[in-house]
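User: quick one, sequence for these tokens?
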């Protein structure tokens, strides 16, 4: 598990690794997933490093709620407010980057 010193998403937030920005504010950054699984696939991250959604929920529940609001606003713009919000948590659930990130899948009708 990487800490913030060796974290891909910390580097993206700091602008050390390029990304395609979708949204940003003081606490939160959103960018296009490099390997999209839907027509619109955005990752939303808190600027502060937390390993997963449970850590974020415990340390800063308001930020978790804010991430949900940002997801909604992206989907409002891209696909009449419909979207899928995913937090892969743990290696065996497919988490590969250990800086909490919400996957927002939208922009098209999604399979059930
Ligand atoms: P997860 O597997 O839930 O940890 O999600 C990590 C996501 O980060 C994957 O969907 C990757 O496609 C995405 N990803 C990895 N590297 C980059 C990058 N440099 N820019 C944008 N997305 C990335
Ligand atoms: Zn990080």
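Assistant:
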């Amino acid at each position: 598990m990487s800490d913030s010193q060796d974290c891909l998403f910390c580097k993206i937030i700091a602008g050390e690794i390029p990304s395609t920005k979708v949204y940003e504010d003081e606490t939160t950054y959103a960018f296009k997933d490099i390997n999209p699984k839907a027509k619109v696939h955005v990752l939303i991250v808190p600027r502060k490093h937390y390993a997963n959604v449970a850590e974020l929920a415990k340390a800063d529940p308001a930020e978790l709620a804010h991430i949900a609001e940002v997801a909604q606003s992206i989907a409002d713009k891209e696909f009449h407010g419909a979207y899928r919000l995913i937090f892969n948590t743990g290696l065996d659930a497919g988490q590969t980057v250990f800086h909490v990130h919400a996957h927002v899948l939208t922009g098209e009708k999604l399979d059930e």
